[in-house]
Design a protein that fits this description.
Layout lengths: L10 H27 L16 H8 L1 H34 L5 H13 L2 H15 L5 H25 L3 H9 L4 H12 L1 H17 L2 H6 L7 H11 L3 H27 L1
């Protein structure tokens, strides 16, 4: 083994220290926001002079915040479905297809993950203005699906490439139709890849703000857009409460994914 902690002597404690510092660097800003959401100050003051649930009450009492969270959830679910279905079809083509240009097609699918998001956002904004989709639910779903598709293709393709196709062939030889073999043998075998695609597709849409700013309209705003717009007006702790709820859902989905992977 190239890296063995037992053979590193005192250097392993240096590695542990670096790991702890990196972990704190990632976690402390999140903990800071969560602490501010419970602070009694009407400004984003730290440390909070006291503790309260007032900002969460104001969040759930404001119909604009509820509309934003409903819009985010609706778009996230639609993106999750469309991205996973398209990612599944694309993965079958990329893994099992034997055609010229397959690697070019794979690179094209992954391009939205490599390009700066603002470049994708400007391109989609200009195109959607031409076809009248800007500021519509359909435009939101298409734009976020473009961004989420690489995050669906990667786990599904990996799971499909690791699946032994001879098992599917054996099912066909035993009398199953090709589609029946795929539905009853292949898809359950790659369920972990499918579940990862579902989780990542939803989270990409749920947390995304750059494209959402370009796609938003006064009557159609996601939670990140609503948070961004509120930040430009004031620094109310309600924003910290909204951010904490976004973080909470993200952590819950990641924890669920980890638990299901452990059980599998």
């Amino acid at each position: 083994m190239l890296l063995n902690l037992d053979r590193m002597g005192g250097l392993r404690w240096v590695l542990v220290l670096i790991s702890v510092l990196v972990m704190l660097f990632l976690i402390l800003p999140v903990a800071f926001i969560v602490a501010l959401s419970f602070g009694s100050s009407q400004w984003l003051a730290f440390p909070p002079p006291g503790w309260t649930l007032r900002w969460y009450h104001e969040f759930f009492a404001d119909p604009r915040w509820l509309a934003a969270i409903w819009t985010s959830a609706k778009i996230g679910v639609l993106v999750m479905i469309s991205s996973t279905l398209l990612g599944l079809l694309a993965s079958f083509a990329l893994v099992r297809g034997r055609f010229r240009g397959r690697e070019t097609l794979r690179a094209a699918f992954l391009t939205p993950m490599i390009l700066p998001v603002v470049v994708v956002a400007v391109a989609l904004y200009a195109f959607f203005l031409k076809v009248g989709l800007n500021g519509t639910l359909l435009g939101f779903v298409i734009a976020h699906t473009v961004l989420a598709l690489p995050f669906a293709i990667i786990p599904i393709s990996t799971a499909l490439a690791g699946f032994d196709k001879s098992v599917e062939d054996a099912a066909i030889l035993c009398g199953a139709s090709p589609w029946e073999a795929r539905l009853r043998i292949t898809l359950p075998s790659i369920r972990h890849g499918l579940f990862a695609a579902v989780v990542f597709s939803f989270l990409v849409s749920w947390d995304e703000v750059v494209i959402a700013i370009f796609m938003a309209s006064p009557t159609l705003q996601t939670m990140p857009v609503r948070i961004w717009g509120s930040l430009r007006q004031d620094l109310s702790p309600v924003i910290a409460a909204a951010s904490s709820l976004l973080i909470l859902l993200t952590l819950a989905l990641m924890l669920l994914a980890a638990l299901l992977r452990k059980k599998g």
